[in-house]
Amino acid sequence: MTELPSVAVQEGGGLRRQALAATGQVIGRSVGRLVGFAMGLVDRPMKAIQRAIGAKRMPYVFLLPNFVFFGLFVFLPIAINVVFSVTGGTALFPSQRPFAGLDQYAYLFDCGSFLDPNSCREDHFWRGVANTAKFVVFQVTAMVLLSLLTAVILNMKIRGRGFFRAVYFFPVLLSPVVVALIWKWILQRDGLLNAAITTFGGQKILFFVDPGWAMFWAVFVSIWAHMGLYTLILLAGLQAIPSDLYEAAQMDATPRWRVFRRITLPLLWPNMIVVIVLSLIKGVQTFDEVFVLTGGGPGTATLMVVQYIYETAFSNQVQNFGLAAAASVVLGIVLFVLTLLQLAVTRQKER
Amino acid sequence: MAASRLARFAGRRRGGSGAPLHWTDIAAYAYLALGCILMFGPVLWLVLSSFKTQGALLEFPPSLLPLAQVEVTVPGQPQPLPLFRVTLPDGSVRELAQLRRVGLVAQMVDPKDPSQQFRVALDKREPVRKMAFATENYTEPLERFAFLRFLGNSVFVTVVATLITLLINSMAAYALSVYEFRGKNAALLAVIGTLMIPITIILVPVYLVVTELGLVNSLWAVILPGAATPTGVFLLRQYMLTLPRDLIEAARMDKASEWQIYWRIVMPLTLPALAVLAIFSIMWRWNEFLWPLAVLTKTEVYTLQIGLNAFQGELQTQWHYLLAMTVVTLLPVALVFVFLQRCITTGIGSTGMK
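Above: the input entities. Below: the structure tokens describing the complete assembly.
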């Protein structure tokens, strides 16, 4: 963390470094002056407040702005969400919405069989649930295995380790829209991948017309974009394993596979669970990349729960806020259980 | 020969010890090489493609580099003509410019000697191409679409939201780290609680709150709801807990007000953690998608991400603009990454949060 200023300066020669330092100084000085000015404005009223309520109560003043935001945009909405889900109609303001009891939930759960989305009255929601479940199973499994493999390899004595770590990590910073467009361009009908396929004598594949392929690429692209984060967490775990364990194993000429199974895996297990739960939580909320990549299609083949909520509330002809809120409450409960699981796991890890 | 040298190079270990190469080492390097192609390749392909002309983008199979047909000015012709490499009936190969095309035959002229004209079958010629960067892909969207506006909106949201986040998060973190007061544990618990409530599950009610505040279709609707971040409060609090208490006590002796202690003493010492939070916040805000998508419906308040998404719906056939705009959207993040890579990775590594 403290390396921040030096990193920018490391690049380039002396002249550039001087120029950089000079601009840095100028920017620093003007920002400093601006901040000082703002400080002067706030200082007096703050002193007056402190005199009025006493220094003991000052922490409440410091907490206030943050908690006003939390209250307005998190706590209040949770309550309103429940109100929305038990009222009907199309009005946005709760006072204009007729009470509907548990009708929204009943409608949402009105299914012939929960294993068959087609038997449900709100079949889009259940198709979203089924797709999200399928997506999460494949994505989390592949992501955890690939991040583990990558982290183990990056932890070996390898040249250019920092470079390779950066290579796997950088897509994490890209925006979901950019990620989706990059791959859409490669996967389109006359794209790079189809060019490669036809060069090797194959037929062009319309990836976004075939439901199976669309789901495959949704999973693939999302792994591509997020793998670096989990690799990083696992790498931190690997580097925390004491090296004398490995040295002892090397003395005994233990085969590498056994070292991995008997030393690495057990000691890395707590980090693995964190990665699994974290990717589960993120996976259940998948929306952005898949939405831009496939639009939920073909048909509803890659429609996710969050997209269902968004469309039900905002982009459908009839904005059904009640149904969307009921679906979010269901999603919220799933996430709540997963988060409790994560907290339990982290607490166990700390012990 | 070259391969064996490469193997010897790859086989050299860190620290130069001559340990024999295990097959897993080779597999590891192969995996890393493949990773480089898979991770960098798509972005590189995007950048290369973004410099191709509209015509070049429609080619199949696509060329790797942005190539464009060479055009020459021929004396006596008002417009520049496309240049082709032609195989003439006598077997000789010459570079000719096309005057006009009639069916499967083209009427061509030698640019060096305009009096010489040829009739050439279309399959006997090949366009002469050279590397050319279609920079108009970048400049035209700026004039034609509201792209500059989206860019401005994104910058405004990112900067203002990050400043607000830094201020209110650090104030809360200061209260929760330096003081003992009633309700402190409840406040900490509330912060943990908000960590569990992502915007995805309170989308509709936040929309209602924003509507009540009269902020729909204003950039403040994007800025305000996410300004108080639990991640930020925790990150800063953990850092502030490590600061020496004597310093704060000494300042109190000197009759500094609590605000002055926060502003003049604690904040400057927290700069490294503030920098990490600033980078996180910039990333979050620049890339934010679902919430702006829900709350911004007018084109003039679109952020880059929403604008880009809208374009990809409208401009299905105009990939040349779309690709260039994608590159512009990607650029700031790429620059931040190049300069602050280590800072970001240690920040995420130490918090486990993104």
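Note for the figure: Chain B has 15 helices and eight strands.
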